[in-house]
Prior knowledge:
533 residues, alpha+beta, seven-stranded mixed sheet, 27% helix, binds adenosine-5'-triphosphate
Amino acid sequence: MEKLVSLCKRRGFMFQSSEIYGGINGFWDYGPLGVELKRNIKDAWWRDMVTGHDDLTQLPGAPGSYEMTGLDCTIIMHPQVWKCSGHYDLFHDYMVDCRESKRRYRHDQIQGRWVEAKGKKIFATAGSDSEAPEADLERQALKFFGMRSKNADELKWDGPLASLTTVDDFELVLGPDAKTLGTLTAPREFNLMFKTTIGALGGEADSAFLRPETAQGIFVNFKNVVDSSRVRVPFGIAQVGKSFRNEITPRNFTFRSREFEQMEIEFFCHPDSSAEWYTYWRDRRFKWYLDLGLDEGKLQLRDHDQDELSHYSRGTADVEYAFPFLPEGEFGELEGIAHRGDFDLRSHMEGKLDPATNPLTVELNEDGKPRHRGSGKDLSYRDDLTGERFIPHVIEPSAGADRATLAFLCEAYTEDEAPDDKGKMQSRVVMKLHPRIAPIKAAIFPLVKKDGMPEMAQDLYRTLKKDWNVFYDEKGAVGRRYRRQDEAGTPFCVTVDGDSIQDNTVTIRHRDTLEQWRVKADDLTDELRKLIG
Ligand code: ATP
């Protein structure tokens, strides 16, 4: 992982935000190569899910044909949106503060073990950033009890590693960075939404939130889309955009950031076929990552257990990837696909529903009034062919553009060997990105800077530029130029040499197989189109 992080910075995939001021935790910038990569991933998603979708055909695994359309909503929305969606009440984590170290931790992310020595039993802990919690716990316990490491076997451990959530008496807890017992505060709620103020006056009535997901913009525009376009249920609305969560422990590079981008679909269907649509979307979205090059051995589709589901949901599954920063055998979420029933549309109609009720009813306050009032607008749908009126069920495939980018980068990073200019094998770093998402599709080199080669190469560069992001490079030995493109993930290099001037052919070199072959210069665009797909 360190090698990938350093390559990302060195080659301009990713930088820490505001780095010259020491950076800001949980925020990342995409450099010249990174911005192209992420844009290509979002474009591939939009093309595959929306603009390239065939409304007329029943796709494999789908219960029928369906339509897809898009939206682009604002980041700041009416505060009532977040009250009815449940984010205002529920979107929080529990935090504990350490009075001694002044550090703040997520309650459920502190891990520890009960340990006894010198007649005293304590709960020793390690923070979520600990890479070897067992070793850290031992060090911490030895220090606390004033013992040397050679006496480590005098520590009596009781039970396996467990979350702090299993402990009631905080007086017996030794905080991850504390020297004394009982320095952690009781868990307190911490809302993950960033708050902001609208207008100049700045009272509580003017406060609003930066959206923590793009989905709600789709629900509140459901009626607008139905009324203004000719879509019929079943159909999906897609949106790509920034979301913000004040994550307590941003970490693992861009995996958990405070500002990130989501690619979300809300798919509206008849309640009777929603279970089949859920299965379709779950499998379709899993396959998308495989098609773009993630290794099947590192990707899994994990169905949530029945007890993890809300009763109104017929299923939720996560597409997960074995990121290299995770311990062996662990996976991180790339995308969640959820069957959400009619929870969202009804909450925005009637008022925030109580997810614990069955059938769902509006949550009431102490006065017996809705806790958060809905819009009162009718968000039901009338099928003009059958005359039936119903509230559609929703299937939600919700993906993160940054996590997808990170997974593709992790997958692509490869070290192998390639011959240098003298034919001697040398180790190389190559980013084996799928040609569809590679930042640069092809690099064009004149072998040497004379005899008409630069002119011919520049002509080809200008021709290819009309279709793709291509790169012209005439500096240094050709082997060095190949290496630079290998690190950038450029799938094809095109070289113009002495023969090219004679017979109007060029050499294409394949990044992964290192295979080289000649094609007519006039056929280059067609040849690359076949290769890039
Ligand atoms: P997690 O459990 O990892 O916090 P989540 O279940 O809260 O994720 P969702 O609310 O389902 O995530 O959001 C959908 C997608 O948005 C996730 O699958 C992920 O790809 C992306 N995402 C969510 N939170 C973050 C974050 N803090 N940084 C980067 N991407 C994120």
